[in-house]
Amino acid sequence: MTANLSGENTLKGKSIILGISGGIAAYKVPELVRKLRKAEAEVQVIMTKNAQEFIAPLTFQTVSNNPVITEMFAPVMTSEVAHVSLADKADLVVVAPATANVIAKFAVGLADDFLSTTVLANKAPILLAPAMNVNMYTNPATQENLEVLKKRGFYCVGPGKGELACGWEGKGRMSEVEEIFRSIKTILVPKDLKGKKFLITAGPTQEPLDPIRFITNRSSGKMGYALAEAAQIRGAEVTLVTGPTQLPLPRGVKVISVDTAGQMYDATIKHYQSMDTVIMAAAVADYRPAEFSPKKIKKEKNNLTIALVKTPDILAAMGKKKGTVFLVGFAAETEDLLANAQQKLQTKNVDLIVANDVTQPGAGFETNTNIVTLLCRNGKSEKLPQMSKELLAHKILDKVIALQSEARRQKTEARRSRN
Length: 419
Ligand code: CTP
Hints:
With 419 residues, the chain is α/β, with parallel strands linked by helices. Helix content is 35%, strand content 22%.
């Protein structure tokens, strides 16, 4: 069973009602609409009267490519956009910004304008992105209203801390568009990895030579981080063992930061056996300086030879123990892609190898996209076109799920035929 999703495709064809209430943060929301449309979601914007004081409906009409609903009894209102039929076809209702006033209305079930009526008639999940003055936010009335709504199953993103439009500092800022977008995806993605434990490694390792120098490689960590984020939003409990990267840490993931291959080995081997799946996306340095010089190496000689020794092969070590853990490795190659990857699959005893020819433009290190072939133990392979690392992360997870359920099916059949 494949979930057939991706960071972008999760939202494809989804119908999202976006309610906008009267807060200054409304000016950020066209960017959210643009992102949703780019992800091929249908967006129907509803604006309260106050929201229209902050931003023109025409802006939202343009970015959503849909007429904006601003009034309860507008002459243009057809049965297609009436609150009940709209609420019926929605996959998700998002209210951003959600002011203290609309939160209060939702909490008591008031229905005195199009947005509150739609929210009341709606059966789909609802996500609120509160935005208001810090004192309004911390007021027990607002806090209790939010508690009531959360108990009823409303989702809430933010608010964040920071400088507020009213001049105050504190909690009340609407979450950034990127964060709201991520929450939307998290709510809509099927949780097909719920209850599963994933360990994912990412990034390069750094092997120190002296206090200011180290040997490393060009890995950015993007592929491993995309995998950690994708597994997390699909419901898995994720541990990310990461080498040094410049990337923001994925939310909701347990992070273990390491520098060297030796440290990555220790962290990975320690947790490995309690995992369902381990994905080795890290570009582990194969060699480290044989000796670490505690003092800076001075440029005294014309030639300098540095002796290197092999680091432990983490994936191969796990492959030796194997057990029931599903192992996924990567193969970064510059020649004979499939033959080399096939060899790694066998010698490291893994279940799936993600093979990429790092010399191809749009593939490998530092890029936002990748071009890979998935090689399975059963000898089957699947060549994937160039795609974002985010989308590829979901494709890899789809493959893991498919191979695991195939293995379960075969085991059951074997048991049946024995009896
Ligand atoms: N790997 C590992 N420990 C190492 C080196 C690599 O666990 N010391 C893992 C990588 O994370 C990857 C897989 O092994 O999942 C293959 O890594 P790759 O660099 O492609 O190959 P190597 O095994 O290092 O062999 P070579 O460099 O000769 O291609």
